[in-house]
Design brief:
It is built from eleven helices and twelve strands. By secondary structure, it is an alpha/beta fold. Strand 1 and strand 2 form a beta hairpin.
Length: about 300
């Protein structure tokens, strides 16, 4: 069995299209179709069914997808284990949240890429629950998340630092003059929040619920830039990691209002499977991120 068929199969699952897969891999559509047909003939099952314009896995296809992931992960591990520790090849899959991808992790990725120019680094952002699930399923080698402390029997968790959360409002907002803010002040305000499932959104909503505080309305965005722009445009107030709002606060585009509650504590942390073999690049990345703790403590 040609392993390239497995890579092609995985790309078809990702894109849901033979044509798109061919474009991404540099193959003709007929070549993609042929490779999938050879897999189906080998296993004597149908792997995909068409739903509208997309290709969807059959039940047999879903079972094969699980094993293909395991096989390709083992192949990457084998390649990394037998390679020279300098300029390693292979693929490193990292999951993180948007704020850390944009404002924290990129210098560490750049440093790793400088040490290993031929290493393929895939950085994917998402919500923390999905990232943790991705680590458990093997979709990510590790994740750098922004969440409450993660305690899971199958995961190793390394806290990096506690992240400061800030509440931002439009310029000249009525709350900006306060030295301390009672949560009751949020009664009747419009909140502009990240997607449902975001840890600090969940914690804020729980806090408001416990205090029986009714806000006027909630606007949700998946984009931090959209949230900050909406605040600047006087559509409401938002809570964000300080690293994501620092530039806008310093420039005066938005104003920071007092907000500090013990119930809302989140941490940047590394998570990976306990059984994960740490390749040299993974170990180097973890060490670099852990060094951030020492810098903060000094």
């Amino acid at each position: 069995m040609d392993l390239n068929y497995f890579y092609t199969f995985k790309e078809v699952v990702k894109w849901g299209s033979y044509t798109k897969t061919g474009e991404q891999l540099g193959y003709a559509q007929s070549s993609v179709t042929t490779q999938i047909k050879k897999l189906e003939d080998h296993f004597q099952v149908k792997l995909f069914e068409r739903v509208g314009r997309k290709m969807r896995l059959t039940q047999s296809g879903e079972e094969l997808y699980y094993y293909v992931n395991q096989i390709l992960l083992l192949m990457d591990e084998a390649e990394e284990r037998i390679s020279n520790e300098h300029n390693l090849r292979g693929t490193l899959r990292i999951g993180t949240v948007e704020s850390l991808a944009a404002y924290f992790i990129t210098p560490y990725i750049k440093e790793l890429k400088t040490r290993h120019p031929d290493l393929k680094i895939l950085l994917e952002s998402g919500l923390c629950p999905k990232l943790k699930e991705g680590v458990l399923e093997g979709a990510f080698d590790l994740a750098v998340v922004l969440d409450r402390y993660i305690d899971h029997p199958e995961l190793t968790t390394i806290p990096i630092r506690e992240e400061t959360l800030v509440m931002i409002a439009p310029k000249n907002h009525r709350l900006q003059q306060l030295k301390e803010m009672n949560l009751q002040e949020l009664e009747g305000e419009t909140l502009i929040l990240t997607e449902e499932g975001c840890p600090y959104r969940v914690l804020l909503e729980q806090l408001l619920m416990n205090e029986t505080i009714q806000v006027k309305s909630v606007i949700s965005f998946s984009s931090l830039e959209a949230i900050k722009q909406c605040v600047a445009d006087d559509l409401g107030i938002a809570i964000l990691p300080e690293i994501a709002a620092r530039k806008e606060i310093e420039s005066g585009k938005v104003t920071q209002i007092p907000f500090d509650h013990e119930e809302i504590r989140i941490y940047t942390q590394i998570v990976y499977q306990n059984k994960k073999w740490l390749t040299p690049p993974l170990s180097q990345l973890i060490t670099s991120l852990k060094d951030n703790i020492k810098k903060n403590d000094e």
